[in-house]
DNA sequence: CGAAGATTGTTGTCGAGGTCAACAATGTCT
DNA sequence: AGACATTGTTGACCTCGACAACAATCTTCG
């Protein structure tokens, strides 16, 4: 495909068409081109839970990333560190299953965390295939810091959602 | 990097170490390798709304994609079609802004929808830069079908979440 | 025991999306 | 008229999810 910046507009179709007469035309039919829609109708999206869940999820993650930017920990990395820290010695398959991510994806994530000196993959003494996952000392320290920042992020959600709505959502989703 | 399938395991460290004596050792220290964790501790993730929101969002989208697979409409495409259908003539910038996606991203999505004959980009009569977005006849038909399937998807959420929780979540998130 | 099958960690590859920068055409403001 | 903003567009990069294939290692069962 040739690198054309903007389809160079073949010809100029008669510009200067109708200009909206000062006397309002009684709304004959739907206006062909809106000028400034002011408010846009969401249509049936208003009755789709997935739409709103998606919106708030994106919003929360963006805030989380911004808060944890100083230590460069993504939401996914945070969840991995938390689970390993609370379940020392678990395997990659177990970790991937509980977090709902692919084993292949987790491999590359751990590869990075290993190189950053936060996690370790020790050979399992019982099963030659497994790796026993652990946090290094540095990893534990980093996790503590991450949890502090994450708690601040969480506290920041309250004003946005309202304390009542926040409590309600957390409870409803945790039991879902 | 050389294509090595699995780090060929340099040497075999003394296999057959401790085998967990029948007499329980009074829990000297943390067990070095777990056998079957049965239940895994989520740690502080239990108090992070983002974790649960993410989980349910992934679940809902997967179900949506599966339901709409027969007509090959993704959640993002669905939202685009719905908004265009409910706001004929709006511009790409407006659409991108209301859905919270990048203008650049929307361009390629519309490029695809155009080629599938579902949407049109008409030149705006008032502003030479804008495109007035519209659904074609085929697009309107496709949207109706998509809405039927999407409604079935939505109805399928009720048994999963419980009618009460569903209503509660939708209401809380819509007003958030 | 030993062959067949399942599990675990790994790499490669593909595609969908988000992000950012640059750009041409057009509109607006002073 | 010139400076500036907006709109649509392309290109490039990166993250992430999904699959397929594979070597090493259990597990099962004849």
Q: What does this 3D model show about the protein?
A:
2 copies of one chain form a homodimer. In chain A, strand 1 (119-123) and strand 2 (131-135) form a beta hairpin. Chain A has a domain at 75-174: Winged helix-like DNA-binding domain superfamily/Winged helix DNA-binding domain (Arc Repressor Mutant, subunit A), CATH 1.10.10. With 176 residues, the first copy, chain A, is mostly helical. In chain A, 28% of the residues are buried. Chain A has 6 helices and 2 strands, in the order H-H-H-H-E-E-H-H. Chain A is 51% helix and 6% strand. Chains A and B meet through helix 1, helix 2, helix 5 and helix 6 of A and helix 1, helix 2, helix 5 and helix 6 of B. Chain B binds a DNA duplex (30 and 30 nucleotides) through residues 1, 3-9, 74, 76, 91-93, 101-108, 111, 121, 127-131.
Structural class of chain A: mainly alpha
Strand order across the largest sheet of chain A: 1-2
Kindly provide the radius of gyration of chain A, computed on alpha-carbon positions and rounded to a whole number of angstroms.
26 Å
Major sheet of chain A: 2 strands, antiparallel
Mind telling me the CATH superfamily name of the domain at 75-174 in chain A? Winged helix-like DNA-binding domain superfamily/Winged helix DNA-binding domain
Kindly report the CATH topology of the domain at 75-174 in chain A.
Arc Repressor Mutant, subunit A
The helicity of chain A comes to: 40-55%
Count of extended strands of chain A: 2
* SSE order of chain A, one letter for each helix or strand: HHHHEEHH
CATH architecture tag of the domain at 75-174 in chain A: Orthogonal Bundle
State the name of the first-level CATH class of the domain at 75-174 in chain A. Mainly Alpha
Quaternary organisation: homodimer
What is the count of helical runs of chain A? 6
- Find the biggest chain interface: A-B, 71 and 72 residues
The proportion of residues in beta strands of chain A is 5-15%
Low-confidence blocks of residues of chain A: 1-36
Overall shape of chain A: it is: elongated
Please report the distance between the alpha carbons of the first and last residues of chain A: 49 Å
């Amino acid at each position: 495909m040739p690198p054309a910046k903007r389809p160079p507009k073949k010809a100029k179709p008669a510009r200067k068409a109708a200009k909206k007469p000062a006397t309002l035309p009684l709304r004959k039919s739907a206006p062909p081109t809106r000028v400034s829609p002011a408010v846009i109708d969401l249509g049936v999206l208003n009755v789709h839970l997935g739409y709103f869940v998606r919106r708030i999820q994106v919003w929360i993650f963006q805030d989380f990333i911004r808060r944890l930017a100083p230590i460069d920990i993504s939401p996914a990395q945070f969840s991995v560190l938390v689970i390993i820290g609370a379940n020392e010695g678990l395997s990659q398959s177990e970790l991937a299953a509980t977090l709902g991510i692919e084993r292949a994806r987790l491999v590359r994530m751990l590869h990075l965390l290993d190189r950053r000196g936060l996690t370790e993959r020790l050979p399992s003494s019982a099963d030659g295939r497994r790796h026993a996952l652990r946090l290094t000392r540095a990893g534990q320290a980093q996790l503590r810091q991450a949890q502090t920042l994450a708690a601040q992020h969480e506290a920041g959600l309250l004003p946005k959602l309202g304390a009542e709505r926040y409590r309600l959502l957390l409870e409803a989703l945790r039991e879902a």
